Amino acid sequence: MAAIDLLGIEKRYGATSVLKDVSLSIQDGEFLTLVGPSGCGKSTLLRIIAGLESADSGQVRIAGRDVAGDRPKQRNVAMVFQSYALYPHLTVFDNIVMPLRMQRLTSAQRFPLLGRLMPGRNRIEREIRAEGEEVAAMLGVGHLLERKPGQLSGGQRQRVALGRAMVRHPAAFLMDEPLSNLDAKLRVQMRTEIMSLHRELGTTFVYVTHDQAEAMTMSDRVAVMMDGELLQLAGPEQLYADPDDLRVAEMIGSPQINVIPAGMLAGAHRAAWGLPQEVATVAFRPERGSITQQSDATLNGVVSMSENLGADIFVHVRLDGDAGTVVVRTGADGPRHAAGEVVGVSVEGREVLWFDAGKKRIRRQDAEVLAA
Amino acid sequence: MKPLLLGKTGKVVRHVVLVATALFALLPFVWMLSLSVKPAGEIFQADFHLLPSSLAGLDNYRTVFANAPMLRFLLNGVLVCGSIFVLQLLVCIPCAYALAKLRFRGRDTLFSVVLIALLIPPQVLSVPHFILLYYTHLLDSYGALILPWIFSAFGVFLLRQFFRTIPDELIQAAQLDGLSESTIIWRIMIPMSAPAIAAFGIFSVVSHWNDLFWPLIALRHVELATPALGILLFRDDEFGQQFGPLMAATVVIVTPLIVVFLSAQRRFIDGLTIHTMK
Amino acid sequence: MSHQNLRGWMYSAPSVLMMGLLLFGPLLAVLFISLTDWQLGQDSFSFTGLGNFRALFADAVFLKSLRNTCIYVLLVVSGTVILGLLVAILLESSDGLKGFYRTAHFVPVMAAASAMAVVWGTMLHPTIGLFNRVLHVFGYASISWLRDERTALLSLVVIGIWQGFGYAMVLFISGLKAVPQSLYDAAEVDGADGVVDRLRFVILPMMGPVLMFVVIVTAVRAFSVFDTVRVLTGGGPNYSTDVLLYRLYTESFDYLRTGYGAALTVVFLIIVVVLTLVQAKVMDKRVHYS
What we know:
The complex is a heterotrimer of chains A (372), B (278) and C (290).
Chain A lengths: L3 E10 L2 E11 L4 E5 L6 H9 L6 E6 L2 E2 L10 E4 L11 H13 L2 H4 L10 H18 L15 H13 L5 E5 L7 H18 L2 E6 L2 H7 L2 E6 L2 E6 L1 H6 L4 H6 L6 E4 L5 H7 L7 E4 L4 E4 L6 E10 L3 E8 L5 E7 L10 E6 L5 E3 L5 E2 L1 H8 L1
Parallel strand pairs in A: 3-8, 3-9, 6-7, 7-8
Antiparallel strand pairs in A: 1-2, 1-4, 4-5, 9-10, 11-12, 12-18, 13-17, 14-15, 14-17, 15-16, 18-19
Helix pairs in contact in A: 2-4, 2-5
Chain B lengths: L7 H29 L3 H4 L14 H10 L2 H32 L5 H13 L6 H10 L6 H5 L6 H12 L3 H9 L4 H12 L1 H16 L3 H6 L8 H10 L6 H21 L1 H10 L4
Helix pairs in contact in B: 1-14, 3-14, 4-8, 4-11, 5-8, 11-15, 13-14
Chain C lengths: L1 H32 L17 H8 L1 H33 L5 H13 L2 H11 L6 H8 L11 H29 L3 H10 L4 H29 L3 H7 L10 H11 L3 H28 L5
């Protein structure tokens, strides 16, 4: 159980900078997710925490200690991989207890066949067996202990991989997209299992995924990364409602937030919404808009299509003047809008998020302070 | 994906070991070159130096070319291996195409037969091939060297696998454009299979260029000898008793293939390992 | 449908014809001849059933050549596989001079076996050969490597290993490239990060199928050894380097005992086919992961 601190982490591969001055503090016992598109550096950051790679500059502290020189096995962290990475020739049981054997048995005791004769070995093995069986039972793979990984399904393999991590009682669990290889239904099921595991164990979980829905449902806090930079670290609700960066707003939430370049807005809109000059882009969530008659105060356009998802209907409106397409959520009880219909989209001023030319968020208080 | 994690010492150890094994691999070549430029006196000297004291030994090469048809051997090699490869392509490509792209009765059986043919080691057929050529009076000729090899089960297999990866839609589109089947094979499938054909070519040429067993059996006339046999004939000949000229002769025999290899390493290694990776 | 049939068979016709004429026909001929006492050039022969085979297995020379071949194969396969694997693992573990090492080790594979056998012959020469010169420097007496019964086969074994370990190396390198990085990572995190542990838990298990494959391929090549024997020892001294294919060659083409030679051929064929089929079976079973 430990807090993890990353200070000023930088990493380059040749000329490309993969991590640019990333600093973040993971609190003891929290479930923190690193989310971002592939190539954003999240897996690299995880590997740096584990010690599988070293940062070019910056510090990694686990439980307050600088772990710079420590090999992975010395850091007391456990890792779960996307491809499970189970030892193919070992049984499920041997896979799960591998870290324990490495920790507690000497090389002599681990020697094949002859190691059994070494003193103390049998006692340690008995302890290991008890712990391994306990973990296996907790994960529901107790009946598979004699099988080899090749004989298991994807879900079972992932559980064995989790067992191998759990059996060490590590200071933190590091998970690198562990569910990406599973089919959709299994993924959802495993998500809840991992979450309840976290509740039960109370250990720090550091989770990496590119799936924002996963990040949002599972985490205490989410770190959004892009191009090697940490864009925002906050709880899911705050990321959704109060993003620091346009890229965060676009990444989080499905369907994607509606984005309109401020230059495309009619002067009337700018006035109605009170947009300061610095605003380069505006955005609003689909559920914050509503379909009405066209007027000067609405975003005007033509319905291009209507997605009927049963409980919700998402209406796509192509705005006049090449301003792009926006998506508006309407309830199933409301009026239907067919393609070709001429409509207006109305959004309340305070639901509109402002971003400057550098994609950074402009909050209203700041704007007022600037204007004053 | 490094198998071992090597620190500074580890890397040094790695170099030491690999240099040692590389030396083992290259030792005969260094020895061969060294002796090929030494005159007889130096070779039999009591004290030994790798580098020759003078280039008087270049005479060895003169001796070789004057007394043995070295160029003839190399040309035979080119002629025989080239003909084998071309004929193999002529025989195997249509069959591979049919197996890959056409549907006909008995196709799968035919493919199984090809797979079985892959199992047969070539030396097993030497006696009946010999008999066949003996009774058709073709022994001791270029035909004897070429004809037994014009079919290659491996060639059919490799090309069929490769042809299968060419999308059917491409062929159908060509058919709709009015191309005849032979044009399709010639202008579309063959160019697209260039890597597989190259790999097969390398495998075929190298194995036949280096083959001693069959030419030894099938030939009596020295003028028809391919390189592998040629060097043996030279050694058993008068001038081959002297090491200087003998080594010079081996240099001449071995260099062409090695030079070609060095200029296209990737292709060579792929070609020679593709055979086994089936 | 029948037009497609015709085209299919038309295209396959040359191959089918050649397969019959050059492969299966001869194969049947060999099987048939092995059951007779025919000698090439004779007009008549009689059917002897398994007589040739009985004679074969009663022939001390043949049994010796079979024994020699088995010893040769065992030693060459072990040496080639171990050396090839060692070089492959070291080569892949760092980037320094990788290309040079790979090329250098592969050159012996490319050079004609008979020509290089000639070169090795001079290296093993009793007086002016390289190895004996080295022995002299250290004060030892010369060894007649190829003329001494005790060392002749071993010399051929060393040459055999020399010829093939570069090939094994290349196959092992592609096998090593397929080992997933995540497995190395998992082992590191678990604490299995030393050389022995990495070999034991990651490298060798993942290389299982490739290892099997290389062993079989090397074994088949080793069973087919001929060039070095023909060039350097002629089967001697005292049949100590006589091998299967060399026996086959002398019986069939020097002595023209065609029926007997055919029986030898059948034995050789069976060994090679069994080896190849064993490999196919084992490869089927031994796939750990998809």
